[in-house]
Amino acid sequence: GLGDVYKRQDQTQANEKFAMARFIAERVLPGMTVIIDGGTSPYAVARLLIGKRLQVITNSLPVAGLLSDVSSVETIVTGGSIHNRIGVLVGPHCDEMLERVHADIAILGAAAVNPQGLWSHNLPVAATQRKMIASSDQAIFALDHSKFDKKAPILATPFASTHTIVTDAEPSPEVASALRAARATLALCPRIPSSG
Asked: Among 12, 54, 87, 127, which one has the highest count of C-beta atoms within 10 angstroms of its own C-beta?
């Protein structure tokens, strides 16, 4: 099932993602409204937000499920069509809802990163991510080092000064220079070595 896909992906990347997730979770303060995107990296952050008093808006069914029993978090699900096996909601209903909200922070992933910006495999996912970014004061992207070598066909967003890219390894000089030119923030969270 859905949970199993997440658990498998979670365990393989747990050490890499934990340092990044912790860094992002520390930036989320009690009382904030936070948009959380689908995917395993935003989910890893959501796990660390349990216990904070927050309003969370998400298009991720696993995130909604995780937070549904947490009394300190008011969870709002966007609505829309379920896109794929990881349970992400997309489409016009989702995007219209996101246009009517405002958040302090959006926490997102991406399929790939290059000097042009952050990329997606899928048109509706990219459209939803753009709405999330537009509805938030700042966008924080959790991107492990593997995303810097990948290719994806659809540009979700170019870099902007309101973006923070959180990653676990130094990006290429081209990407670093594009981030500087856009006045985006780069946060390096080195991987925690695996035991054994």
From this structure: 54
